Amino acid sequence: MDPTQNDPTLGSWRSWHAEDAPIRIGVSSCLLGEEVRFDGGHKRDRFVTDVLGSWVQWSSVCPEVDVGMGIPRPSIRLVEAPAGPRLIASSSGEDFTERMLAYSEAKTTELQQLDLDGYILKKNSPSCGMERISVYRGQGSQRNGVGLFAETLMRRWPHLPVEEDGRLNDPSLRENFIERVFCRNRWRTMVRRGVSRRRLVEFHTAHKMLLRSHSEAGYARLGRLVASAGKMPDAELSARYEEELQSTMRTKTTVKKHANVLMHALGYFKLLLQPIEKRELLTAIEDYRLGLMPLIVPSTLLRFNIRKYEVGYLLGQLYFDPHPKELMLRNHC
Ligand code: SF4
What we know:
It is a single chain. This protein has 333 residues and is of the alpha/beta class. It folds into 2 domains: 25-170, no CATH class; 195-333, no CATH class. It has helices at residues 13-16, 46-51, 63-66, 97-114, 148-156, 171-193, 197-214, 216-227, 234-250, 255-266, 275-289, 296-309, 312-315, and strands at 24-28, 57-61, 76-79, 86-89, 118-121, 133-137, 140-145, 162-164. Mean pLDDT is 94; it is low at 1-6. The site of iron/sulfur cluster has 12 residues, from helix 3.
């Protein structure tokens, strides 16, 4: 039997968190309240600064200031061109494309040295926006562009969890992003200490239910990788596991997937539960499935019973405590 299966401390994000490996997120500077916008203003985001700010270290980046455009500066926009959109000042027609592209390449390399856990971009910006940026053609425009800095960042760093401020207002996208960020930080922390077969099994075991809530297929592929751990060098195993891990965590959770994981967890109690306890849990899971209560209700009820009956395997599952409860990510219907 795997020795980690009965270690309850592995089931909490806190026990995986290391003081010397803080969660580090890149962010568009204006979202932190820095007055770097073209008009000298900012776009402070309360969730970013007041909620998430207590748990992470920021790497603040304003590409337009960094390329020397100054504050204040003329507003710029993406303009359609055969070889890709150009970054043009609306009033003067000055072209900032080459400067921004060169900067974006160099800055992405610099940020990769910091080994970030995620990135939050400013929506609607021709430099920072991750999707649906207006691209102008003559008098008209189409919202199908990507900010030049954002495009380089996401292309060069495909596994980095990236979101923008607008999308973070969607509770499920927000939880998905934060879950990926915390998971990446746990992985990074383990890698810093050296990946061994034992550590990988420990990591994988603690994440099993969390992975299943994202993708059963991804969970199965990761399981096969761990099972073949002795057949490849540690470095190759680590690289392949990380790639599959990030891809699995990128797959969005759904109510149905969560409900399936909760029912799966219930199966571990077998004859332990009193009939009334089992009924309460089944009702809470069904109410969650129907959208009558948030995920925090059935998962907390399950967690209480896991501790009460000391269900070893479930005690070690990060699914029940993947990120700080203060972020209130599972409190929405
Ligand atoms: S959106 Fe990006 S480029 Fe624009 S002010 Fe904010 S950080 Fe700077």
